[in-house]
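User: Predict Polysaccharide deacetylase's structure from this.
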Amino acid sequence: MPLALPEGKRLAVSVSADFDAHSVWMGSFGNTSPAYLSRGEFGAEVGVPRVLETFRRFGIRTTWCIPTHTLQTFPSQCEAVMDHGHEIAAHGVYHEYIPKLEADEERRLMELQLKQHEKLVGSRPAGYRSPAWDFSETTLQLLEEFEFTWDSSLMGRDFEPYRPRPVIRQSREEGNVFGPPSSVLEIPVSWYLDDFPPLENLPRSVGMASTDDVLKRWTDLFDFAHERVPGGVYALTVHPQTIGRGHHLLMFERFLEHASQHSDVWFAPISDIAACWQD
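Assistant:
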């Protein structure tokens, strides 16, 4: 179902920054070595100011998905994000790997991040992005219970928001059965529209791809969405510690120049885009 976008706009563009800093290395990779933590420090101390300046120059308001570990470790940078008018969404406590959590622990961490987020940001988050870009069997129920408006972790569409449904029966011989659509609106993500996998030097990953290759992929997908999915949303995810590197930032700015040349494209935070959904 297409979004009811502002008059004259054909495509919504969400540029979201996952500001993980130290937490992605500690939580997702279990690594606390000085070299890994310094990469997170670069994201906070160097990447965040560079990315904020890029957004300022292009006049773009965005959503920042920030673990509460980062909110506590780098408070001045998080305050700068808010001072620049950007939205802050929930992104876990310490970039925990959601599918491996026991149900009680996932609930405890959900309650903790909401408490910490409200204290540090000053309000409850409207949206959530799983640190794992994946759910457990109970994540969607928790998001509904804690009254999140939107999620941006799943991949059931490419350029259209949708209501995710739980798979309540998983069978190889009889087919799966879906539960009812959720009250939570999904703004889908894509590994193809994420800077971290192709551009970072990661354990067990090639990484460090050509910026020309990444730019072509992002631009091709943008052109497809703009031409063929009117009323859709193009959701691009960047990470300050990745996109903030000089050669990556130049590539990112070339993409923004391409997208911003289209007068019928609307750059907006995810909550603003979710508000355009009509069931």
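The chain is about 40% helix and 15% strand.
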